């Protein structure tokens, strides 16, 4: 069997299955199963001096990471087709970094519907990863961690809450005031 020349990575297996039906033998379609890298759970994961995040592979996703790395090695082009929002953009960026994908081999594609026309059109119009969207998601994630990490421990002690959740709205209001 011929090795596909292209790899399309989407977030979910159901999308991968559907999109795989639309594309010919020159395309392999795989699912990342969402995020493959994140801040560590046991520590802050953000340097409070430089605000640099420290990402690690998500526990339990080693097999997926290995499978995607292997698939990416044997193709000419990798199309990162995660959701068309800032979270999806960040997942694509994390994939590019984690899989060590070279710039000249990596394309970002987005579509708002899982139809053959939308997918084929997206693959015909690839672009670079939008670093502004990535930084936006990264900032939100770090705010959640910096504020929520310590606040969650307080809430656990005082009201038996598991976490403070996403805190960017509260943090933004405090900054504005």
State the gist of this model:
The chain is of the alpha/beta class. The protein contains six helices and six strands; from the N terminus they run E-H-E-E-E-H-E-H-E-H-H-H.
Textual characterization of the structure:
This protein is an alpha/beta fold and 177 residues long. Helices cover 46% and strands 12% of the residues. It has six helices and six strands, in the order βαβββαβαβααα. The strands form two sheets. It has a four-stranded parallel beta sheet, with helices on both faces. Strands 3-4 form a two-stranded antiparallel sheet. Helix 1 links the parallel strand 1 and strand 2. It is elongated. The model has no long low-confidence stretch (mean pLDDT 88).
